[in-house]
């Protein structure tokens, strides 16, 4: 059964202020649509790791999961089978419209909110997750909000992946990855200063800032996805680095994307971007549990 978001009661009983999140990206309609088409969901194996961590700390039925920076909801949807209610929050109305308009589980709803000012009452959530979004938050304020809304024993899960995807396609694998390295290197100068030069380092800094004694850092879980070449290129084009290049010089950005696509096709010995190949995504993640009250 699928329903609209208004069917679910999200219990948004906390009336916070209108503070903005630290960084705002991926908000335009075109980018939101591209995000929905090309971004990948975390693998089930990773969701299972989160749930196993949580179930060791909360034995009763799981009530509420809050997925922060949910975008168009690909990751949010994976939580639906395990919680009575799942709420995806994001700062972007365009992203949330896509998430809300598509078919989704009856226990999911979406709400507009900055990560640093979540619209929930205290001690209500079993899980707060963020899937490839936490690097954009004001980390100190976000972690304060996480601590406020988590139940004692509730868990925080921050999932992300490195931007250096690897490709596999028969004997062409080595050539493809050399071309990809050039692609990523060309985009790196357009990386936002807020997140520095290393995604892993950003999350390690967040990990160090988490005050809970019960916390784990995991690096890395490899996920293999079969997809057409066009989807891989579209995925890279959703990255903030490519979007930064596109904003500065759209002609050169599109030229780079086409050049890389043509070179990959040549190395594969293929003529169509519908040709499928294997994309290897390297995930890393943080799990932490709020102490139980004495």
Describe the structure.
The protein is 38% helix and 22% strand. Strands 1, 2, 3, 4, 5, 6, 7 and 8 form an 8-stranded mixed β-sheet that branches. The protein is built from 10 helices and 8 strands.
Question: What would a concise description of this structure say?
Answer:
The protein has 294 residues and is of the alpha/beta class.
The ordered H/E elements are HHEHEHEEHEEHHEHHHE
Low-confidence stretches: 1-8, 13-21, 23-27
Fraction of residues in helix: 25-40%
- Alpha-carbon Rg, integer: 19 Å
pLDDT averaged residue by residue: 88
- Based on helices, strands and strand pairing, what is the structural class? alpha/beta
| DSSP summary: helix tally | 10
Q: How far apart are the first and last residues' alpha carbons, in Å? A: 41 Å
* SS strand fraction: 15-25%
- How would you sum up the global shape? elongated
Please count the beta strands (DSSP E, at least 2 residues each). Answer: 8
Largest sheet: 8 strands, mixed
